[in-house]
Structures are given as structure tokens and as C-alpha cells.
Amino acid sequence: MGLLLPYAGRYTFVGLSIKPANLKDLPLLGEIRRNAIMAQPETFWTFEEKCKAADAWETMDVQNNFELYKLFLNENDSAFIGWKQNYLGYLFILPEAQGKGIGDKLLKLAEAEISKEHNYIWLYAHPYSERFYQKHGYVKQRETENPFGTTLLHKFQKNF
Predict the structure, then answer these.
(1) What is the mean pLDDT of the chain?
(2) Is residue 35 part of a domain?
(3) Is 126 part of any domain?
(4) 13 lies in a domain?
(5) Has residue 65 been placed in a domain?
(6) DSSP letter string over the chain?
(7) Is 12 a residue whose pLDDT tops 70?
(8) Which domain holds residue 71?
(9) What digits encode the pLDDT tens for the residues 100-148?
């Protein structure tokens, strides 16, 4: 998985640099989120639902409520993660950067930070990403929510 090294508000893995995002990064983070959602197969969401989810970033209250980090890979912004207290709200990776262990590393960062003050982490996972979270020890809960009509998001939790 690689070694996580904190320094001056940044975190590094070999070949990767993760730093806190700020307000001027919000449009970029929205673009990463949009590209990641639009690249998902239409197995779980219709095209219209993907568009609605991808465009929702502009209306989300992320500015003051979430701890946001962005990741640089080969000098390009490729992914970001965000959480509030022990709720993981965002983990998005550009399609061309997926499958390279970036999600593993960002999730490890969030878990390390969240576990300093909480004994568990929770999230709502889209069916497209459920296997990823299960691989990392997250357990599906009975609670679900249905924000887009045809797709259920399932609650997952991992205890520390």
C-alpha cells in the first residue's frame, strides 16, 4: 500500500502527493467528480441520472463542511477525497487514473485522520463502488437511501 508521510499539511506516498484542497479548487474537484460519474457504466444509473448526479456538485454544501484533499499524480490533479467528522462523503478518481491504487491510498488517508477522533467511519456507496469498500473491510448496513429514483445507495461502516 505504500508509506504515508505527513509534512507541512501534505501527505505523500511514493510517487503521489496529497494536499488539502481550498475554495479555489472546488471547480476542479467538481470536474473530477463529473468525469468519474459519467464514466460509470449505465448498469446502475440511467444516462439522465448520471447527468443529475454529475451536475449536483454545484448545489452541494462542501465549502465549509468537509475536509477535502486532492491528489496529484504525475503533476496532474487526478482524484479527491472528502469527509466530515466520521462520514466519508467523497472519493472520486478520474477514469484514466483508476486501477492504480489511488483509491486505496486516499481511503487510507481518510481512515488515519478519522480514526484519531472516531471509532468508526461510514458512507453511502453506489453499487458501482460497493466491492471496493467491501475489499477494504467495510460492512453493508441495512439502511439504504434512494436519491436518484432507480439506484439504491447502501450504507457501509468500518469500525476501527
Answers:
(1) 82
(2) yes
(3) no
(4) yes
(5) yes
(6) ----EEETTEEEETTEEEEE--GGGHHHHHHHHHHHHHTS-TTTS-HHHHHHHHHGGGGS--TTT-EEEEEEETTEEEEEEEEETTEEEEEEE-GGGTTSSHHHHHHHHHHHHHTTT-SEEEEEE-GGGHHHHHHTT-EEEEEEE-TTSS-PEEEEEEE-
(7) no
(8) 5-119
(9) 888 998 999 899 999 999 999 999 998 889 999 999 999 999 877 776 6
